[in-house]
Predict the structure.
Amino acid sequence: METKDKLSAEKAEKLLYQLLLMRKFEEKSAELYTKEKIRGFLHLYIGEEAVATGVIQALKPEDNVLGTYREHAHALARDVDAGAIMAEMYGKQEGCSRGRGGSMHIFDKEKNFFGGSAIVGGHLPLATGMALASKKLKKDNITVCFFGEGAAAEGIFHEALNLASLWKVPVLFVCENNLYAMGTALRFSHAVQEIEKKGQAYGIESKAVDGMDLLKVMAAANKAVEQVRNSGEPYLLVCNTYRFRAHSMFDAELYRKKSEVEKWKKRDPIPKFRKYLLKENLISETQLQEMEERLETEIQKAVDFAEAGTWEAKEELTRFVYSENPES
Amino acid sequence: MSETIKITYREALKAGIREALFNDERVFLMGEDVGRYGGAFAVSKGLLEEFGEDRIMDVPLSEAGFVGAGIGASLAGLKPIVEVMTVNFAMLPMDQIANNAATLLHMSGGQLNVPVVIRMSAGIGKQLAAQHSHSWEPLFAHIPGLIVVSVGTHEDARGMLSTALNSPDPVIIFEYTSMLNMEAEIPADSGPTDISRAKIRREGKDISIITYGIGVYKALEAAKRLSEQGIDAEVIDLRVLRPLDEDCFIKSVSKTHRALLVEEAWSTINVSSEVSARIMEKAFYELDAPVKRLGGIEVPIPYPLHLENASVPQVEDIENAVIKILRP
């Protein structure tokens, strides 16, 4: 493992906490799904945590973040309150989107977290447009847009990248290549399987990185973010990763072998990072123990918050279709 | 009587855009050929020279991409006027409109406004055949979250855009290619159009002709001819197709006790279908005759002029239909 940026003990601890929070939060979510507390679709990010963590740590609070329908971890990395996310998944009005969105539509405007989009690729041009606004308004924030390799087969991916490059706007496209678009493997969806080549075709600097290694993702993301910020131009970072769980809770995983999943699990980014921190003396066993307790408390607090949440009155059904303060 | 000016529909549209660009730095126009070409229909001719490339943006043929970017820019503080050259190309960005523009406020529990304005040229009348003659207003009027307006007069051509840009919610504006060269007199000081209200274009007591878009002037001409035959028709320009100004037409029908609904869109499930249903629900006992609809004939629009004309209601069709209702 190598990274030019020296990791401080404080940051190392924060990152490990974040990775573990994502993992445990989602394991809890799966459990709550089987208990029918969470309904609808639930897409788990388990296995891919190094990507959201590694990229989002490189951002400033004023940067815009857009995610897919597999975005719990991104919201957590963006410091969206775990209780507000859990309450959202419960459909309670205390949720970050007042329960109107659910698991696939986590929004937090204060954190500049813009979803939570469930039409594959549909949010890519929004990211280009938000970056265009930054340019026109002469703001120095950048926009980061996460999507899967499945989205790279959509026409809108190509339009959004071409426009971003043509307009020279500060947007970082992060492709989370987990090898499967639902159940269709990369090799069955892309004639050219190196997604980074598609960015290069539009004149966008594009790099691929091992998405199972937090330090590598961090190094690549730091560089990419810095470049987008300095140049004001787009960048495509492809993070090659793998989801350990099913596509959603309705997926029998007929399209891949258990042995393949087991092989990838050996590359789990969390134990790898933990081991590295111990080896480098960036964390102690005592701290790890204490972290476990904090995690447990935070997750329990989130669940309690969601449980204690309330249902929005039926009378409010048609709110938020149009703005309530048309003058605003 | 205030002073009037003679103006074409095209000039009125341009005046509206120009005024908007003058009044608010955040406003910009983006669309295919809006700049160097001068607008496909010469509506934005000269604006590039006057306002520069930042405010008048030519875009590639990526309707989904640039409409999505317009939505994104509106999320991030700008007031984009996105021109989709014609409604005929609007199925390409339909996903952006239906799944992003119309849903973001709701999915985010009221956090995100989408103050984008999307203009499209629409309608029949230039012998452009099946793929270039669509009246697709009903497709958009079906979608909650959108404000859908139709520019049926010269006054609205000048006044609708500024109100639309003040809306915190997405507005789709339909303009009509076949009306561009039409000249009319409007008050020199005609101001912003109220896009929450339908407009009674002619008062009358015998029957309510309820229409929008190209139907407005046709209905007014028919009303003029009918007045020579002693029939006093009221003409209502629906103007806003979503949300419908139900009060206006229910009041009118309660006064005239008869209704003829006129539009160019295919008859099955068009705006008239909805208006008719609401009259039945709200004013059934006010009716002295069944509601009659005159809509587009259910055929892809053919090229030859005589067949094109036969595909949509003409002035004489309106005239004859009114006579049939009143003097059966």
Remarks:
- DSSP finds twelve helices and 14 strands in chain B.
- The longest strand of chain B covers residues 79-86.
